[in-house]
Amino acid sequence: MHRVVKGMVQVAGATYRIERAKAHRYEVVRISDDVRMGGFHSQPPFDVSPTSGVEAGLLREIARAALRSAKTSWVGRLSLS
Questions:
Q1: Is 68 helix (H, G, I), strand (E, B) or coil?
Q2: Dist. CA 20–CA 10, nearest whole Å
Q3: Domain assignment present for 12
Q4: 80, part of any domain
Q5: What are the tens digits of pLDDT across the range 12-71?
Q6: Would you say residue 75 lies in a domain?
Q7: CA atoms within 13 A on the CB side of 65
Q8: Are 36 and 28 in contact (CB under 8 A)?
Q9: Inside any domain, residue 16
Q10: Domain that residue 45 falls in
């Protein structure tokens, strides 16, 4: 599957690549070791899907950083609280 890289975000001292998998669905990859962290939807309802061994809270923070820095198609539809 071809994914479009939307940009990079930094959270807790690590850098993550945000890839668009399909409409409103994004995948997160940690740059330091090219490990897939999971994914998230930018369309309501906002949700995260961490891979095994990844904390949902960390993936949620990465997704929030991506949304806030305009790396997704969010355009204000979601509450990030």
A1: helix
A2: 17
A3: yes
A4: no
A5: 999 999 999 988 899 999 999 999 999 999 887 889 999 999 999 999 999 999 988 876
A6: no
A7: 19
A8: yes
A9: yes
A10: 4-68
